[in-house]
Amino acid sequence: MQNQFKALTLSYKQAPIAIREAVSLNEIGCRNLLDKISEFTDAQDVMVLSTCNRTEVYYSATQDLSREIIKLIAIEKGFIATKEITSYFQHITDHEQAVQHLFYVSLGLESQVVGDMQILNQVKKAYQWAADAGMAGTFLHRLMHTIFYTNKQVFNQTAFFDGAASVSYATVELVEELTRGMTDPRVLMIGVGEIGANVCDNFGKSKINNITIANRTHHKALELAQQTNARAIYWENVWEEMSNADVVISSVPGDCFFIGQADVAKMGENAPQFFVDLSMPRSIDAAIGNLPNAKVYNVDNIRNRATEALTMRMAAIPQVKEIIAEALAEFAAWTREMAMSPALQQFKSRLEEIRQQELARYTKKLGDEQKELVEAITKNILNKIVKLPALELKAACQRGESEALLEGLSALFNLEKQEA
């Protein structure tokens, strides 16, 4: 399975927010999909990643399982048919391209805000869920740890992660721009997950300091409010507080909480002017934008204005790609070595079988001490015979020429052909 890694991806690059919303999966959905893929396909090394900007499935299999996996996503999301979403998925069936894509996604090269570090935390969670489901094999474990190590190299050796450029920072910049003419604008932050907490942290560096936090688990809102000099309210007061706010930011998934047009219309003149939806699925009705003096923004509307930080990051991209290319080359060499291991083991087993046969034939009349001596001598001979082909194969792997040697070894010793 080492050379059969694939990726099925749907992202902001090819799919509008409504489509991304339709296939987005929360933690339970991702875990359920892992179970379904395990039950209904022969895929191995499976990882499911779903964020506000992408839903992706990485897997190893001999065949392209895109159609089957899309059907399983549809079942998990309750679709009757898949034709509405199928065309938005991209199938990466080339092993090396799929591996590179996961590197690029994990390190933020594919993020809407380039270099956004939040994606790596989301990838780590996806990897943990794969491990929990028993879907992460030796290949995926090695690949993910290689990516994590490469991320540290990029962090330490480049300016790619320097500066304040992220979705959460962009959200604060957007709110600052929208409220420029207001005196002491009131902001209501709903939800204190990772992105909500990051937004509040960034408001701590902003001139806007009238921030109210609402969360279903009140102690989490209170904790964050104390850390960011904000105010926490109880969840049951969220609607009342909304009518006092100028800006509402929501990071709560729309299947848990939803602000509808009718809800806002009831507030009349007290309704907030601006709504910023960072959720997936969305939790703020886009139709609110049709009400007088109300505007709705979502993750696709947010564009980072931190030009200095982004300029540094863009300038660092060639260096980042060079570091990734080195990591990819090392990982490819390891993959080739993994592919040759079964053949080497078979070679050693075949020689051991011959050794045992010959020992059984000629040591019957030997004493115990003599048998032990012959056993030790023949074992050492076998190990030395195996060592040279192993070293040659390893060197051939580094040159990318191991296939011919493996075929020769298999032919000479009648070894079983291994899957690529």
TrEMBL record:
Does the keyword Oxidoreductase feature in the UniProt annotation? yes
Its pathway is:
Porphyrin-containing compound metabolism; protoporphyrin-IX biosynthesis; 5-aminolevulinate from L-glutamyl-tRNA(Glu): step 1/2
Residues bound to NADP(+): 191-196
What residues does the Tetrapyrrole biosynthesis glutamyl-tRNA reductase dimerisation domain cover?
Answer: 319-415
| Occurrences of domain Quinate/shikimate 5-dehydrogenase/glutamyl-tRNA reductase (ranges) | 174-303
Query: Mind telling me which residues the site (Important for activity) is annotated on?
Result: 101
Span of domain Glutamyl-tRNA reductase N-terminal: 9-158
Q: Which reaction does it catalyse?
A: (S)-4-amino-5-oxopentanoate + tRNA(Glu) + NADP(+) = L-glutamyl-tRNA(Glu) + NADPH + H(+)
Check the record and name the InterPro entries matching this protein.
Answer: 4pyrrol_synth_GluRdtase, 4pyrrol_synth_GluRdtase_dimer, 4pyrrol_synth_GluRdtase_N, GluRdtase_dimer_dom_sf, GluRdtase_N_sf, NAD(P)-bd_dom_sf, Shikm_DH/Glu-tRNA_Rdtase
One GO BP on record is:
protoporphyrinogen IX biosynthetic process from glutamate
Q: What does this protein do?
A: Catalyzes the NADPH-dependent reduction of glutamyl-tRNA(Glu) to glutamate 1-semialdehyde (GSA).
Record-given protein name = Glutamyl-tRNA reductase
**Taxonomic placement:** Bacteria, Pseudomonadati, Bacteroidota, Cytophagia, Cytophagales
- Give the encoding gene's name: hemA
